[in-house]
Design goal:
- Helix 2 crosses helix 3.
- This protein is about 25% helix and about 25% strand.
- It is α+β, with helices and mostly antiparallel strands and about 200 residues long.
- The longest helix is centred in the last third of the chain and has 25 residues.
């Protein structure tokens, strides 16, 4: 499976419509499976909610790193595989944070640091593709009042030094996307080399 990663420098809002099928093609002319990343606010409108558990909740933040992943390799798209890939992306990001010396906790597809919610995520399928939205707070600003949150820029090392900033954020984004793509490609290669016992 070939997956293209495109990082968009333009800042724009994630409102939930980007989870719709073929968004990357319609906006950027990307054919096939892809990961599109960008930085911008999140404010999901009620008509774009995909998860019944989120109905009536505010999902918003002033400043987030957004990942939109779309896969066309399973036809028809498989919701179970979409959720497994979503969890894989979350776990890969946790692994990367651990390499920076950051201790995290995971509850389902949510990542927490020092008791603050760092991420949001959703997996969905349409008639033609499977989609994942994964986003990380950069600052604890503009988030719902009833949720304790934390941003990547709020995390400090044992000496009180800020770990992430604008200077190394793109490296973190690229590392996450690259490692996710490599893992998915490794899985496909392992499957192709496995003999099926009949």
């Amino acid at each position: 499976m070939s997956i293209i990663h495109k990082h968009v420098d333009e800042i724009f809002e994630y409102d939930g419509s980007q989870i719709n099928s073929s968004w990357a093609f319609q906006e950027f002319g990307i054919y096939g499976s892809s990961i599109v990343t960008w930085i911008g606010p999140v404010n999901i409108t009620p008509d774009n909610l995909k998860d019944f558990a989120d109905v009536g909740l505010e999902i918003k933040s002033n400043y987030m790193v957004n990942f939109i992943c779309e896969f066309f390799d399973q036809q028809p798209p498989n919701m179970r595989i979409a959720y497994l890939r979503q969890r894989l992306l979350v776990m890969i990001f946790r692994e990367i944070l651990t390499e920076y010396g950051i201790e995290t906790k995971r509850e389902g597809d949510d990542i927490f640091v020092d008791g603050g919610k760092l991420s949001i995520s959703i997996a969905s399928v349409s008639l033609s593709s499977a989609k994942i939205h994964f986003a990380l707070n950069l600052e604890d600003k503009g988030t719902p009042d009833d949720v304790e949150t934390i941003g990547l820029f709020d995390i400090k090392d044992e000496n009180g030094v800020q770990i992430f900033s604008d200077d190394n954020l793109l490296d973190l984004i690229n590392k996450t996307a690259s490692r996710f793509i490599e893992e998915l490609e490794t899985i496909e290669n392992d499957i192709s080399k496995t003999k099926v016992l009949l």
